[in-house]
Amino acid sequence: MAAERTQDRERERDRERAAPRIRLDLPRERRARLLPEYDPEAFGRLSERIARFLGTGRFLVWMTLTIVVWVLWNIFAPGPLKFDEYPFIFLTLALSLQASYAAPLILLAQNRQDDRDRVNLEQDRKQNERSIADTEYLTREIAALRMGLGEVATRDWIRSELQDLLKEMEERRDLFPSGGTRGSDVPDR
User: Fold this and answer.
1) How many angstroms separate the CA atoms of 147 and 115, rounded?
2) Model confidence over 45-54: pLDDT tens digits?
């Protein structure tokens, strides 16, 4: 019996030494990362702002002025003050770098706009479906009311029926005059 207890204790120790059980009902602990974390929404908003700025006339004016000043400076400035020794290679590099960053930023902003449009389209579609369902329901209700009103006695119908009844009574009075005691129940009383 003592040997069984010893074996049970050893088994428990082995279980404790083994890797801890993973609980699926709890979120994982955060691991340390090598790269810094960033907020994708903040980055997306920044890229949209940059893409909007790149599409404005203000950006085109400033870029044009910068290029004109650059070219004039490198043509007319004295040799030691020129910062682009080779004929405008640095300018070409700067412009291609700007273009290489502008294109992905514009695509990112466009993708975000497409996502927003998709969500708005889905909301509009659901709203249209609800409106159509409401309209169909109201149409059915109005049709049921019309059918119900078709069977209801209207004022004009009641008048015409009463007039017909009066005519019929007058015709009977003409056929059976009440002048005599014949047909009258007065003597029986």
Assistant:
1) 48
2) 888 888 888 8
